[in-house]
Automatic annotation (TrEMBL):
Protein name: ABC transporter permease
Localization (cell): Membrane
Record bears the keyword DNA-binding: no
Main location: membrane
Keywords: Antibiotic resistance, Membrane, Transmembrane, Transmembrane helix
Organism phylogeny: Bacteria, Bacillati, Actinomycetota, Actinomycetes, Micrococcales
Length: 267
């Protein structure tokens, strides 16, 4: 009887353990609610791309009146919104989280880092989609930008994939630096990547040497892939390898930064 009871109790305990998918969902829900409870944290990252679209694209009739050019502008500024949300929310946000008493408690739980980090990547995709909403509305109301439903779905899928390396880069910064140091570093990373990637100036205006550098950046690869999904204009041949390569590198940096921080704080 005792052995039977012990076995049943062990089975019951084993059945009660949450699965990795369940842990990831819990972290995803917690991180999402934590962010949206401070609306300015979401709205602030949406403001600059929407204003840039409204003041610099809409008044240019040769751009706003051309369906392909207008859609390309929406895609470029949309990618900037993704980069901004990913780097500020996860670069600065992770650095600030590390200063809170709740963060060491979470990291001491036996779940491991994977569910929490995967949840951050998924949340990055969600907030990337939020960042596109004002741009899509401005493009629809004030320009000739137009896509089919299939192009829109392809664009959404591409956005979710393209957001991953920038979320990982933000996490690498956040786990490496304090909040005070993370803010200027994020700014130094964001704007050069945006300019070099053709998010503010079309790449066909670049000189050859800058165009070659641009093609090696994750922003240019992401921009061209997003433009391809929305307009059908082919991206350059190495866009996917470049994006995947940077994703692997940023993932390694994020994991390495997490482990170094854990070693410093939990010896």
């Amino acid at each position: 009887m005792s052995a039977t009871t012990t076995t049943a109790g062990s089975a019951k305990k084993g059945a009660a353990l949450p699965t990795p998918a369940r842990l990831t969902w819990l972290h995803l829900k917690y991180q999402f609610l934590e962010t949206v409870r401070v609306p300015i944290a979401v709205l602030g990252n949406l403001l600059f791309p929407a204003l840039a679209m409204f003041f610099f694209v809409v008044p240019q009739k040769e751009v706003a009146g051309d369906p392909v050019a207008a859609t390309t502008a929406v895609a470029s500024l949309g990618l900037f919104a993704i980069c901004s949300a990913s780097l500020f929310t996860y670069g600065l946000g992770v650095a600030e989280d590390r200063q809170l008493p709740f963060d060491p408690f979470l990291r001491s739980l036996p779940a491991g880092p994977a569910p929490r980090m995967i949840a951050r990547v998924l949340n990055g995709g969600i907030f990337s989609l939020f960042g596109l909403v004002p741009l899509i509305l401005i493009g629809w109301l004030f320009t000739s930008a137009a896509v089919t439903w299939s192009q829109l779905l392809a664009g959404v899928g591409t956005v979710l994939l393209v957001s991953v390396p920038f979320v990982l880069l933000g996490m690498a910064v956040g786990y490496s630096l304090s909040a005070k140091a993370a803010l200027p570093v994020v700014q130094v990373i964001l704007f050069p990547l945006a300019f070099a990637g053709g998010l503010f100036l079309p790449p066909f205006l670049f000189p050859p040497w800058l165009d070659a550098i641009s093609m090696a950046t994750p922003t240019r690869a992401g921009r061209d892939l997003l433009v391809q999904a929305l307009t059908g204009e082919p991206a350059y041949g190495l866009a996917w390898p470049v994006l995947i390569g940077w994703t692997v590198l940023f993932a390694a940096l994020a994991v390495g930064a997490y482990r170094r921080d854990e070693g410093r704080r939990f010896r």
